[in-house]
Amino acid sequence: MSKTKIVMLDDWENFFSSNLNCPDVAEQIELQIYTNHLVKQDLYQAITDAEVIILLRERTAVDADFIAHAPNLKHIICTGAQVRNMDTDAVKKAGISTSFAKGGDSKSTTCELAWTLILTAYKQLDSLRISAKQAEWRHSDFIPSSLKDKQLGLIGLGSIGQKVALVAQAFGMKVTCWSPNMTPARAAEHGVEAMSLDELMSSSDIISIHLVLGPTTQHLLNAQNLSLLKKNALLVNTSRAEIIDPEASSLP
């Protein structure tokens, strides 16, 4: 019985190569894991015999050229709920099936990451750490104000944004939001005030981005609306980098 040939791409954190243990199926599969990002001929050589390809995150594009170099490919497994760099029409035309790993705690961990970044920056924790190591604990320059009554502006109020809002409300913050299809009624269901993007940008003390990247959200934040930020406002992006226009490099 021939083994199913599986190729895993972009295990750049060495997570699967270090932790994967499949004794029950070892005799049925031939698994090759690549930790380095492969391009062009190296990529084509790696996938030429693959029957199943596992894509980690969105580092390798799947297009007609990719498919042409994987003539035996039957199925693609993707981590995450969606893959932006996959030509779904080309995949369907080739008769290749796909599946997505939608489970896990990614929404909770993203919320935790957002608040880790917010608290580290707002409470100047890194400066306090350095100060403490230099025996200068509680220097007057490093006494931040409370989050209570400060305004958190959420750009996106989906499942992650809602979790971030709950934490802010526990801190006694005013929470506002904007998203392309947000309504005051929907925002009110979560104890949040809806407002225009420009109003949110200009009035928030802290802004946290929780949007899906797409044609309408790419470069959503640009030089014009970033110029509306308060002088000491904090902007945190745990979504996709492309939501912020890279040419708007200097924040106010």
UniProtKB/TrEMBL annotation:
Keywords: NAD, Oxidoreductase. Signal peptide: none annotated. One of its GO terms (molecular function) is NAD binding. InterPro entries: D-2-hydroxyacid_DH, D-isomer_DH_NAD-bd, NAD(P)-bd_dom_sf. The keyword NAD applies. The keyword Oxidoreductase applies. Residues 116-248 form the D-isomer specific 2-hydroxyacid dehydrogenase NAD-binding domain. Its EC number is 1.1.1.95. Pfam families: 2-Hacid_dh_C. Belongs to the D-isomer specific 2-hydroxyacid dehydrogenase family. This is D-2-hydroxyacid dehydrogenase family protein.
